[in-house]
Design a protein that fits this description.
2 domains, TIM Barrel, Alpha-Beta Plaits, four-stranded antiparallel sheet, elongated, alpha/beta, about 15% strand
Length: about 450
């Protein structure tokens, strides 16, 4: 036995004794966020089940361990997610879970829930195939409920992996050791589920890249208040009817698998091929991940066959720097962008107000375009704080010569507010939906769009 295992087991034994001896300790072992008991408070229940049935089943639901919710959004948002999952699990008791099953947390302020499964009614003992069915059911229920409850940006950071283990009681082995072991087994099973998921995603992603199963949609950039299309953003989509159709899922998997440069290269290739018939003088906004700026393939774009074969010239292309990951060395990054500027390309910073260190990016990179993230545009007509923030960004743009684009405009009320603020350009469903090859402003909405007051 490892030294740390021995120390942990000793603390379990001492904690079990304390819980039995000091009843006033119990209230300290309930998680303050979820209100759930922690495992030490269930030791008596587990012992009784083992004495009566010689067996107990345990599920470990590992939540957000492999994401960065607390790091990015803070502990309050993390607590909100944990409370939400606790509510979901409690709602499953009597449905997906049996009424006698007990929901708990592994430890106070932790990220793992433990479910103590009551003895089976129709058979003498639990079977592995039974646990597998329960695991799949619980995972699906949690993910579906969280998707419907969390903001989309936050849901993208969510992760849930369910592990299971069966404890067959052995009277010759110390009870606390058996509990410790079964918990370790369930946690290990949870980790293996994550590994299986990662391998499956990696195989799917490699297939998409190898077989070039990516296509491009275009979304118009509209000059305000004239409602004139001045360019299009190229939006990459994976194969339809699957998880990777959504670009956020596609790029998240690419980052996790260290395939971001390969995927970005493919998306760029597809976008340039699809945009070869773009109208003269209209710009093409081409998304570029920070990691791809050093890609030799990107640096050779001005001389690439795709660009030469199309009607595009470098001065029509805007390299839109996404901020899905942080820029580490601004000095080196800026020098590379200057190389592209010298060739005639323009630079845009995407998702201003939502990504990593956006203000520093604006200062350091001196973009030609600044795209305001949709989170600042959503319901701006009723939110004075958002209005003031967008006014400040627009004022900065006018003073520095940076053209400001408001992304994600969905309603005429939002558009009217942005017109009053004086925003230069807009993009969103209020004008058109992404499509191929080059959508126009919707005829059913063009005559109804608000004019600048």
């Amino acid at each position: 036995m490892k030294k740390e295992d021995s120390t942990t087991l000793k603390s379990w034994i001492e904690l079990n004794k304390l819980v039995k001896e000091k009843k006033n300790l119990e209230e300290l072992l309930y998680d303050r966020v979820t209100g759930l008991p922690t495992i030490p408070l269930l030791l008596k229940d587990i012992e009784e089940i083992l004495q009566n049935n010689n067996q107990v089943g345990l599920l470990c639901v590992d939540v957000v361990k492999y994401s960065r919710i607390e790091e990015i959004y803070g502990f309050k948002i993390f607590d909100k997610v944990m409370a939400m999952v606790a509510d979901i699990l409690n709602s499953l008791v009597g449905g997906a879970l049996r009424g006698a099953d007990i929901i708990s947390q592994l430890m106070i302020s932790g990220n793992t829930f433990a479910i103590l499964l009551s003895p089976p009614r129709k058979q003498s003992e639990l079977r592995e195939e039974d646990l597998l069915k329960i695991k799949k059911r619980i995972n699906s229920k949690i993910t579906d409920a969280i998707r419907d409850s969390l903001d989309y940006a936050l849901f993208k950071k969510f992760g849930c992996y369910v592990g299971s283990a069966i404890l067959n009681y052995d009277k010759e082995i110390r009870f606390e050791r058996q509990i410790y072991t079964v918990l370790e087994d369930a946690l290990q099973d949870s980790a293996s589920e994550k590994d299986k998921d990662a391998k499956k995603r990696l195989a799917a992603l490699k297939k998409i890249i190898k077989e070039e199963e990516v296509h491009t949609l275009f979304h118009p950039i509209v000059k305000l208040p004239e409602y004139k299309i001045v360019g299009y953003e190229a939006l990459s989509r994976g194969p339809g009817q699957g998880e990777f159709e959504r670009p956020d899922k596609l790029f998240k998997a690419a980052y996790q698998s260290n395939l971001i440069i390969e995927l970005d290269r493919l998306c760029r290739k597809k976008a340039l091929a699809a945009a070869r018939d773009i109208a003269p003088k209209r710009m093409l906004f081409l998304n570029v991940e920070p990691e791809s700026v050093n890609d030799p393939d990107l640096r050779q774009i001005a001389a690439s066959t795709l660009l030469l074969d199309s009607k595009l010239t470098p001065d029509q292309i805007v390299l839109e720097i996404t901020e899905r990951s942080a820029i580490i060395d601004f000095s080196a990054f800026r020098s590379i962008l200057e190389y592209f500027r010298a060739l005639g390309f323009k630079i845009a910073i995407d998702d201003a107000g939502a990504g990593y260190a956006t203000l520093q990016s604006i200062i350091e990179l001196k973009p030609d375009f600044l795209k305001i993230d949709m989170s600042l545009i959503r319901d701006i007509d009723t939110d004075n704080i958002k209005q003031q923030l967008v006014k400040a960004l627009q004022g900065f743009g006018h003073e520095t010569g940076v053209k400001v684009i408001a992304e994600g405009i969905e309603t005429k009320a939002e558009l009217r507010t942005l017109l009053d603020i004086g925003i230069d350009f807009g993009q969103g469903f209020v004008f058109a939906y992404p499509s191929e090859p080059f959508p126009k402003i919707r005829k059913d909405i063009l005559s109804k769009l608000p004019k600048k007051s």
